[in-house]
Design brief:
Length: 171
C-alpha cells in the first residue's frame, strides 16, 4: 500500500524515533508499504517518520538501472565513518523538488537488524553511503536542509509551506 509522504515542515519529521523492539507483522507490512511508496515516488530511500511512523526503520534501493536491490534496515546505526568526505546533491521525498549539496563521509559501516531478525553489517560507498546517512538522519529528526545555511534553509522551508497550502486548497 502506498502511504502518503509527510512534507516539511511537519513536527513528526523533527522527532527522534524509537527503536523497533520486535519484528511484528505490522513492521513487515510497514517495510513493504515503505518500499512500494519509495518506488512509486520515485526515490532511492525512505525513512519511517516520512510516512508518519516514529520507528527506527529505513528502506533503500540505490540501483537506478538493473534489477532492484531493496534493503530494509531496522534500528540502523553508523559504527564507522571514513575521514574522506564526498559532496552529493541531495533531495528528499519530504522536501519535493529541492536539492542542495551536502558533505558526508564517503564510506560508512552500518549495523542493523534485517526483517528476518538477523544482525547485519555492511560498508556502503557512493550513492548508497549518502543515502543511508540521509535516511538515518531522518531517524534522529534531522533533514538534509539542516546542513545548509540559515538563509537557504528558510527559503526552502517557505517554498514547502507554500506547497502545502496549495495542496490543501486542491483538497
Amino acid at each position: 500500500m502506498i502511504r502518503p509522504i509527510l512534507i516539511h515542515p511537519d513536527p513528526r519529521l523533527k522527532k527522534p524515533c524509537e527503536a523497533v523492539g520486535e519484528i511484528t507483522p505490522e513492521i513487515r507490512d510497514l517495510a513493504a508499504d515503505m518500499l512500494e511508496t519509495m518506488y512509486d515516488a520515485p526515490g532511492v530511500g525512505l525513512a519511517a517518520p516520512q510516512v508518519g511512523v516514529t520507528k527506527r526503520l529505513i528502506v533503500m534501493d540505490c540501483i537506478k538501472d538493473g534489477p532492484p536491490e531493496p534493503v530494509v534496515l531496522i534500528n540502523p546505526r553508523v559504527v564507522w565513518a571514513s575521514e574522506d568526505v564526498t559532496t552529493y546533491e541531495e533531495g528528499c521525498l519530504s522536501i519535493p523538488d529541492q536539492y542542495a549539496e551536502v558533505k558526508r563521509p564517503a564510506l560508512v559501516r552500518v549495523e542493523w537488524i534485517a526483517l528476518d531478525g538477523t544482525q547485519q553489517e555492511r560498508e556502503f560507498s557512493g550513492l548508497w553511503a549518502t543515502c543511508v546517512q540521509h535516511e538515518i538522519d531522518h531517524l534522529e529528526g534531522k533533514l538534509f536542509i539542516d546542513y545548509l545555511g540559515p538563509l537557504k534553509r528558510q527559503m526552502i522551508t517557505r517554498k514547502m509551506e507554500k506547497l502545502k497550502r496549495e495542496r490543501a486548497r486542491q483538497g
